[in-house]
# Entry
Amino acid sequence: MAIQITPLPYNTNALEPVISEEALRTHYEQHYKGYVAKLNDLIPDTIYEELSLKDIVLRSGKKIQWDHEIKIFNNADQAWNHTFFWNCLTPARNMRPSDYLAQRICESFGTLKAFQEQFNLEALELFGSGWLWLVLTKNNTLEIMVGKNDENPMASGNSPIFVVDLWEHSYYLDYQSRRKEYIENIWDLVNWSFVHAELVKAEKHQPTRKSTRESIKGLPFYLRQRWVESDRTFIKRRRTCLVSGTVIGAALGGTIFFFLAALVSTQVIPLPGLISTSGNISSGFVLFFGIPLGVFLGAACGALVGIGTPMPLTPKTSH
Ligand SMILES: [Fe+2]
# Structure
């Protein structure tokens, strides 16, 4: 199964003046199509022949066994990265991130401007060729990742949501060696709708359920991160989980201990330490201490479960 060429999502002159028609046409026709063509020469009669482009990238990059696989990975990765890059750009000028995307960026970088400044800085500091990614990490945070040459964040289990091509061929015709100017101008072309969609898609594949131990361990950081944010909706939903967990836990704990007290007082469960001077179980003692203890333990457990309940991060606004 040959890997198909992905059409550009806009005309070759649509990104002018930031990226000229000549530069984009050369980039697409020569470089991108060149990677796909080389890949299609390399995969026949290999285990990669029937895989999708993304699966070829993931599989060939995981455990490279032989030189031929290095070539397959290099070309597959470049082909996939370029397709992703085309979609990160749009002729619609000066789009803004959705509220939800902006909120997620601010959680990790402080402000959108700070994110862009850091991104620009990383782009300038990248030595040689490569890609600069914004990824959703396995820890559910947004991070900038530098991919030297054809490094891809998917190889380390992170989900790319935005990328800029920093290979010289992507900007040399328009900017020569002025990478700073290229990276600063490219913000006008960012397709924030695509970035938003990729973020939401990546979040759906994020592991959302944590073990109790992980929840407790991350609680201080989690509280600090969440409660200082201005996300009232999130706080309200979290508070609801906490209150519900506490109430349900207290009710369950109290009920369980009530029945335990009943079983102890009827000596179904013998508990010698609680036998009264008359030789009978002091049910009053058990009820007096047992039920509040049950309510307390139940409430504490319920509160922990409630605050540790994975919270789906649904976008506030559809885009
Ligand atoms: Fe490129």
Summary: Residues 312-319 have pLDDT under 50 and may be disordered. The beta strands are 130-136, 142-148, 159-165. The first strand starts at residue 130 and ends at 136. Residues 175 and 181 are 7 Å apart (CA to CA).
